[in-house]
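Memo to structure team: turn this sequence into structure tokens by end of day. - J.P.
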Amino acid sequence: MDEKYHRSLYSQLDDLDYAIARRLQDNARLPFTQIAKELGVTEKTVRIRVQQMQDEGVLSLVGIVNPVKAGITVQSLIQVAVEAGKLDDVVAKLQDIYEVRLVVLTTGDYQLMIQVLNRDYEELSQFLMNKLNKIEGITKVNVINELKVLKSRFRFIR
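Reply from structure team:
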């Protein structure tokens, strides 16, 4: 391997893991045989390393759907304030709601931030009135509609 790898932020990966992950983040369909040839190792070594990284939760090889192309025209970030002692219950209910894509624990006046994907504003209204507002323990919400995505990246390794 002649390539120098900069891994200061990724100390849990050795040089080979890092090199494999770097290539797969650019193209998850890259054949293991090609990666092996570029790195001077066997295809079996690449396959084993990828499986280990997947098993450890370091690497996921997934297809990313463009929400706009899939008919999702309204994306919202919603700050959620939760009554003391109810956080676990609220999170469990949010995890079961299809429209909720992301649930994040935050600091400040709102304990949670969720991302919600809807086809249109009518569907968002129905979600707010019939699902979110009926969850016991939520005391306040702040809905932030995403007008335009200016940056969205899936590359984390340089």
